[in-house]
Amino acid sequence: MSAIQKSVSTADTISAAEFSAAESVLAAIQSVQVEGAKKPDLQSMANPSSDAVGYVHGVSQTEQSRLLEQGELLRPVVYSAEIAKILESHSSRVVELGSGSGTNMVYVLSQYVGIRRYTAVDFNQDAYRGQLEKTFQNELSSKRLSLEQADIQQPCAEHLKGEAGTVFFTWVLEHLKEPKKGIQYAADCLQPGGCLIGFECDWHVAGIVTSDAQLNQQYAGFVQSFCAKQQGSGNPHYGQCFEQDVRESGLFTEIQSQKIQLESSMQFANMLLNILSGALLESKEEIEAYRQKLLDVFVSTHVEVTRIVAKK
Fold first, then answer.
1. Residue 262 to residues 74, 203, 266: CA-CA distances in angstroms?
2. Which of 73, 161, 271, 291 has its Cβ near the most Cβ atoms within 10 Å?
3. What CA–CA distance (Å, rounded) separates 281 from 146?
């Protein structure tokens, strides 16, 4: 069964021509060339130049609202019954890496009352601090929550070493030039027997499929431009490398990896377009024009997430 067949739940209602377009769109994402964007190269993405400038999340209100909406949409994927069980059993102290605007904190701190200490680590923490101090005033004053500004590609702070029962992150390593150092940082934070929970994605298989070949090609162009932009600071296809890097680190005794395919929906199509629009400001009008045409020709989405659960 192909990736598209797995992602289209109503394939019997799609014409042969539409299904052919669905089968080809993921290949188009990987092959199309657009002006000013090179085809992604995994080797170069793993070793970007030090002076390159790539895509990182902004701190504008629009971008933070988008991230909160995205977090709510992906919540059923991230907080499955299995992950809930881990958080409940290892939750005396949690360290979140790449905590950003607090999407995960909002949910975790309200749902898991057994968490006594939650440390939110982010490279850009000072930019978020003002809003987080308003949102989490009670948690901060009770010292249940603490905010740390740190680059997780640098050595772990001494006061965090060996402190966490759970280290948690969602879509963070893809933004790092040296993701293996992020894995080392996570392991250093963990107590013996503690759990790492991490989620990463792969933009090679982040597709919106339509019955219009021209729109499929246009979407592929957006993805290629996005990947070229992110190349300077990370690897938009890191979902391909995530499990291998964790295993090769030698830092964990038990490692479980799972590929999760998100259910096809217009909600996820809009989520992908919002990500692209937020990063490709120069293409924002084109992306919005594409969005307006999408409803009449939409077939499916294909989004794959890699989840790692590893025990130290």
1. 9, 13, 12
2. 271
3. 33
SS3 260: strand
pLDDT tens track for 184-235: 999 999 999 999 999 999 988 889 999 999 999 999 999 999 988 887 788 9
DSSP bridge pairs for 95 = 119, 167
Give the domain CATH number at 64.
3.40.50.150
Which residue bears the tokens 């200490």? 117
Q: 3-state DSSP call for residue 301?
A: strand
Domain count, the chain: 1
Element (H, E) at 255: strand 254-261
Two tokens at 257?
């990896």
Q: Look at the block and give the residue holding tokens 């729109």.
A: 215
Distances 113 to 76, 92, 107, 250 between C-alpha atoms, Å: 19, 10, 11, 33
36: pLDDT strictly greater than 60: no
25 neighbors 209 (Cβ within 8 angstroms): yes
- pTM reported for the whole predicted model: 0.82
Query: What DSSP state is assigned to residue 14?
Result: S
CB atoms inside a 10 Å sphere around CB 298: 18
200 touches 238 (CB < 8 A)? yes
- Tokens 């600071």, residue located: 233
- Could you tell me the two tokens for 153? 């590609």
- Structural domain harbouring 297: 3-311
What distances in angstroms separate CA 31 from CA 15, 40, 159, 184, 217, one per listed residue? 25, 9, 47, 34, 10
Q: What would the DSSP string read from start to end of 200-254?
A: EE-GGG-EEEES-HHHHHHHHHHHHHHHHHHTTTS-TTGGGTHHHHHHHHT--SE
Structure tokens at 57: 């999340």
